[in-house]
């Protein structure tokens, strides 16, 4: 019984995941630390800053109990620089934020939900994994905490268009052996592009199916005729892909 | 008739628009009109004026300098005439459209020409090939006006905008565009929209569309007081008296008014004007106002200021009508602007303002002016630069331009005898007036700000914690100028005014009975220099060098005289009181600041008259206690220092915890910002980031930023590599491994010294107080983390190689060995890297420590 949903995560699901990101808030009233499923939250003590998960920050913001400090990459200055970088480098995406040095050799490196990529200490010059959904949510829920919300919104829109255009252009080279460098692509962009790109690849594969079949037949014949040869590895790979 | 005696009307030109100008020394008066000659009148003589024939016709503007004058005419020529031989010297510049106004810079070297063209030309009067073009106008220009220093030019356009250009750079630069100050007027209208720079150089006035004269301060572009002229027609001309104490305005309703600058009151109104006056000029020294009208006539109005007000003309340069004069000692935290026209200097707290005669003049302005003036002149060099000493051709210093105005001159003179510079008093966390607002107090609890409403102030108290406290505001008839705020209450104080002595007002936030706010007066003649509020006491330092300590319910608890005086500021935390005063003079001619810390409850002095360590020529910006109760200071060089061991007499020392100049955000370059200190809490420095040349926060309230402590160990150039790596074009992840290693050990070294400092701070606090369990735990944590950092350092040294063994052993000896296992661990680290010799030595060390032979202290 297949779920009537496209493969991968839907945009609401991506947004839900994004709500785990930590953001910096300036509380407007006291709040003891809360024991949450995701770990204890720090006690709030105005005007000291604190890092809270986005969902809690938005909740407090809606109740006017806190102000959200937009991350440094969500300022007009940084976004303009990022947009310039994106338009100048037509073939690659702007790089993701650098990972901090691992605290000790034994622990695993951080991954985005636990990496502090959207707090006030985040690097100002790189878009984190959840940039699009986080920006949209902050602009919707806390637009009065931005200095120029309209400019930020416009820049975000511009960035999104540029990057989506790159993703779509990448499809042109997606042939049987083609590849697309997708470093720095955000979560929401992936989920948006997944349906389209997946469709394209499936379509290409259907078109190539007969040729593929012919090649496989030939391979089998060759093998039966005793030619082990180099095609062996290819065969295995193709087999895996088709499943 | 008296009137006829006073006014000498001269038919100077054929009926039509006529303009005039005095030479800077006031000896000659030159008029131009619609006919083709200029007339030169000599002050004080009734003789027929000299005439220069064969000029241009339809002249529209004139400006006179020393020995020459310049005219502009409707045919677009700007001509320079010599006054020595009354001849045309040269045509300075031609414009394609009629000239509307010309202005001569105070030094007489540049003339600005406004014409119906969009471009304003500024021509050198000596060398007409040197021309500056000001091109930012979108409509034609009606007036141009140089400020008193000659570095700024105000251009009034016909579309109602004023553009201010800076001419100090090679390429003139527009620095400000002002809208709504003037009406949009046709370029050939009689009405005027000229910018009138006040002679004190800190403000200018303009005729507004509502026929008033609006004054605007020039440093922050805030509207200041206005002269409500009540003219029935458009203002056609207005001019400040040479010392700025009076303003003369005239309008097309045929009236001429005289205003007093300080009060903006009408002194005298002349209704007997025959025709619309187009141009007016004060005689530079005498009580004469000359004006020309649109009927070709010149009037030399002697004794225009009534005798009862004549004293006003003889004052030194008066300040422009500010709501709050920036130089007036607001709480001393004032961003004093120098009155000497040195406008590029940023308002900043110079120590010299106190006691300079000029500021006394400002403060004592209420006294009879003559009295104040007499002292003022005698005090001085008596070289006759004081206005009107002999009356003959001596100019008031208002015309000498920026360099010679009082403050500058006084300083040059004052340096011939020794006068120590005292540090000015200030209230921590307050800002000076800007426009009609200022912050009285800004800290982590909340902020107190006041708005001046002319007769009273409105004070608003806001809190960060909206739930715990309710914001409140009240009207304040006493004009409180200092405030403190904490969790329990708000403290205010006001200066003595008139018969009312200085007062202190405490308002608790909440009580379980009715509100128990109280006021207490200080003895007459004593004013408050700084106040401080703690959880249990109120501290007031006064001008009589008393430190007055009250309980929270207003019971006077201690009064004593401060040894270091005059008092600068004070701070309080629980039972501890920190007072700072001026002490003996240091090498740079400034007083050292001395501080005293005492415990009021136990009546115990911890540090008596110890020095506040400042670098030469820096000043103290703020002083406060952190949330853990340690004193911190922030100085004008941007360094945050704390006092270690301050509870042991004689042991205290200042330790830098943060140098904001070395912050990576500044060292990256390109950013110009400064940090306004607010507080230290939870081992973080809270401040407000000020962009550009701002020195004080303003409205709307900027958000607080926090910085981690960073003890200045190395210059920011080391971190440049890092910055570069973090820039956009990250090509690949190749990193110079040696740099990273160096960086790592740097960070470790830094965190070692920072943790050690914090450990010392906390342990000295705990040794003098009853520690709570959480404090004790924190102390242990710090101690363990010191050892952990040392272990990491040891690991690095071991990895670096056998030859680093000596250093590695030194690191081991530095260990505190809090839990007794650190040396063992160190031995293991050495073993892991295969440093057997080192491991052996570590074991020896551990054994010696165990038997108490080596307590970490070697002879």
From TrEMBL, chain A:
Composition-biased stretches, type Pro residues, lie in: 94-112
Q: Which UniProt keywords apply?
A: Chromosome partition, DNA replication, Nucleus
Localization, per the record, is: Nucleus
Which InterPro entries does the protein's record reference?
Answer: GINS_A, GINS_bundle-like_dom_sf, GINS_Psf2, PSF2_N
Classification via Pfam families: PSF2_N (PF25005), Sld5 (PF05916)
Name the GO terms of the biological process aspect. chromosome segregation; DNA replication; double-strand break repair via break-induced replication
Q: Compositional bias (Acidic residues) at which positions?
A: 231-243
Q: Per the record, where are the segments of Basic and acidic residues compositional bias?
A: 212-225
Residue numbers spanned by region Disordered: 88-120, 209-243
| Gene3D superfamilies (UniProt xref) | 1.20.58.1020, 3.40.5.50
Where the record annotates domain GINS subunit, the positions are: 115-207
Q: For the DNA replication complex GINS protein PSF2 N-terminal domain, which residue ranges apply?
A: 10-69
User: Principal localization?
Assistant: nucleus
Q: Is the keyword Cell inner membrane in the record?
A: no
Entry keyword Metal-binding:
no
Q: Which GO terms describe its cellular component?
A: GINS complex
Which family is it part of?
Belongs to the GINS2/PSF2 family.
The record's note on quaternary structure and interaction partners says: Component of the GINS complex.
Q: What is this protein for, i.e. what is its function?
A: The GINS complex plays an essential role in the initiation of DNA replication. Has a role in chromosome segregation.
In Swiss-Prot or TrEMBL terms, this protein is called DNA replication complex GINS protein PSF2
Organism in which the protein naturally occurs? Delitschia confertaspora ATCC 74209
Automatic annotation (TrEMBL), chain B:
Alphabetically ordered keywords of this record: Nucleus, Repeat, WD repeat
Q: Which InterPro entries match?
A: Gal_Oxase/kelch_b-propeller, WD40/YVTN_repeat-like_dom_sf, WD40_repeat_CS, WD40_repeat_dom_sf, WD40_rpt, WD40_WDHD1_1st, WDHD1/CFT4_beta-prop_2nd, WDHD1/CFT4_hel
Compositionally skewed regions (Basic and acidic residues) per UniProt: 719-728
Q: What is its main location?
A: nucleus
Q: Give the residue ranges for region: Disordered.
A: 325-359, 715-746
GO cellular component, alphabetical, reads:
nuclear replication fork
Instruction: Show where the WDHD1 first WD40 domain sits.
Output: 10-298
Kindly list the GO molecular function terms attached to this UniProt entry.
Answer: chromatin binding
Q: Where are the WD repeats?
A: 228-269
**Location within or outside the cell:** Nucleus
**Which residue intervals define the domain WDHD1/CFT4 second beta-propeller in the entry?**
424-713
Instruction: Tell me what this protein is called.
Output: WD40 repeat-like protein
To which species is this protein native? Delitschia confertaspora ATCC 74209
Phylogenetic classification of the source organism: Eukaryota, Fungi, Dikarya, Ascomycota, Pezizomycotina
